[in-house]
Amino acid sequence: MTITIRNAARADIADIAAWNQAMAWETEQKALDPAVLARGVSAVFDEPRRGFYLVAERDGVPCGCLLVTYEWSDWRAGDFWWIQSVYVAEAARRGGVFRQLYQNVRDRAAQARAVGLRLYVETENERAQRTYAGLGMERCHYFMYEEEFPRG
């Protein structure tokens, strides 16, 4: 099986939205509003400053994706690249798809002179944590907090 990684295109929006929907349900049992999700995915294509998606294909069939966004670090005078919205279709899991996606992002970030890569993972998702550690990522010492604002 051949795995290739490519930049996502607008034609991938429906797949990316569906994968995000599946990921939210699998990790948090959270049902996302499909219309909001479609707008959110499309917005990345509308404003490249927001980031970019990569799509993995196995034997020419799309099977996963991730989103890269940027965080400026004044301490390091450079961008961290955040890996977000990671999803690999169930049939393609444990087959090296995420490893290829990660390596592609890592290579691009190094070429762009980013200062590092970051991602967050559910505290209970031990399999993902082992995967990230196996790729050389280290658990950092920060907790993440958030406050969501009502959308009107």
TrEMBL record:
Keywords attached to this entry: Acyltransferase, Transferase
Q: Which CDD domains match?
A: NAT_SF (cd04301)
Q: Which residues form the N-acetyltransferase domain?
A: 3-152
N-terminal signal peptide: none
Q: Name one GO molecular function term.
A: acyltransferase activity, transferring groups other than amino-acyl groups
Matching entries from InterPro entries are given as:
Acyl_CoA_acyltransferase, Bact_Acetyltransf, GNAT_dom
The record's listing under PROSITE patterns reads: GNAT
Protein name according to UniProt: GNAT family N-acetyltransferase
Provenance organism = Dyella solisilvae
